[in-house]
Amino acid sequence: MFPSDPDVLVIGAGCAGIAAARELTARGRSCIVLEGGTRVGGRAWTESMSLDAPFDHGASWLHQADDNPLTPLARALGCEMLDHDTVRERRLFAHGRFATGEERRAFAAAEDDFWQAIDAAARDGGPDRPASAAAPPDGPWDATVVHWEGAQICAAELSRMSLHDFAATALDGPNLVLRGGVGGLVARLADSLPVRLAARVDRIAWGAKGVAAEGAFGSVRAHAAIVTVSTGVLATDGIAFDPPLPLATQEAIHALPLGLLTKIAFRADGPDVPDLPPFVSLRRAVEHDGDRPMSWVARLFGDPVFIAFCGGARAWESCGDATRAEAEAREEAAKVFGPRAAAALGRAIVTRWGEDPLFRGAYSHAVPGRQQARRVLGTPLADGRLSFAGEACHPRFAATVAGAWLSGIEAARAVP
Fold it and tell me: Measuring CA to CA, which of 133, 196, 209, 307 is 20 to 30 A from 48?
C-alpha cells in the first residue's frame, strides 16, 4: 500500500534509497520510493539465472567490514559471508608465467611504496592534482600498481582522479563476500518498504512549498524529496528540475563522473577449464605501454564461475558491445591459462552498467581539484525540501554500498 499524501518522495530504490526509506519509516515519516526499473537494489544486483550460481553484477564486497553499516545488518539476517582476504590466494602473472615468490614480494613492496607516496602527497599542503602525479613512476612494478589501483579498482585511470579524494576514500579490509551476493542482501533490506517499480521520474518541481515528481506514472506530491539516482543520470539531464538546480550543485554533479567496471563472468565446468581453487584472485602484470590487463576472481564459494574485471577506459571502449567484451576476456584468459583452457570456458554474462540509462556507469570519482564536490552535492536545498544521496555524496566511503547507505540515512535525517 502506498500513502496517498506522503511526507517524502525517495527517487531510486538503490542502496541509498532503501536506507533513506528505512530511516524515514523508523522516524514515523511516510514515504514512497519511486524506482524507474523493475527491481530494487540499483547498482547492487545479484542474479542466479544466467550462470546457475549467484552472480553480483555490481557491488561484490562489503569493504572495510568492521566499519561498514551493512555488516551488522547482514549478520542479523543470517547471511553466510566470509572475509575474502583470509581465504583467497593472490596470484600474479608476469613475463609469460606465474610470478615467483620473490616477484610477488617485490610487487607487494611496490604497492606499499605506492600508498606511502599517495598519502605523503595528499598531506604535503600542496594543491590537489591528478592522483597519477603522486604515483612512483620508474619501478618494474609501478605501471601494474597504477593500473590496478586506478582502472581496475576505482573504475577510472588515476590521471582522471583527484589525489585528495583518492587518498580520502581509500579502504581497508576486511572485505566480505556473501554467499547470496551483496545485491541479495540489499534486496532483502527493501522488504516491506513502499517501493513503486517501473516509476521512472522525468521531472521534479521543487521549492519552499514542497515537491512534485512527474513521469509516465503520473504525478506525486510530497513535503520533500531525496534523489538517489547516479551522477551519470543527473549529468545527462535524466531528470529535469524546475527550477533548475543551483550552479554549485550542477557543477558538483559534473565533478563526480562515473567510471566503468565491466564484469565478464563465465560458467567454468569441465576438465579443461583453468585449474584454480576457490576464491583465488589473479592479476596480470602490465607488459608494455598501452597494455591494460584484466583481473580475475575464481570460484567464489566453490561455484564453477570465473569473473574477469575490465575497468576504466578499456571498459568504456567495449560499452554496448557485449560480444567484444566477452572476446577480449577470452583473449586475456588465453594469455594466462593457454588457448585450450580459455576455449573451455562456458557461457558468459557481461554486465551493462555503462549503457543502462538508469545508471550510465559504475561508481563515482572526483576529478582533480574537486574533492569537496561530494559535500556540495550532499548539502540539502530549499531548507531540506530537496536532497541528494548516494555513494557519490559520501566523502569517506564513496563508490561503495556503505557510502550509499550512510548517505541515504543522512539525507533522511535532514528532512525538516
Answer: 196
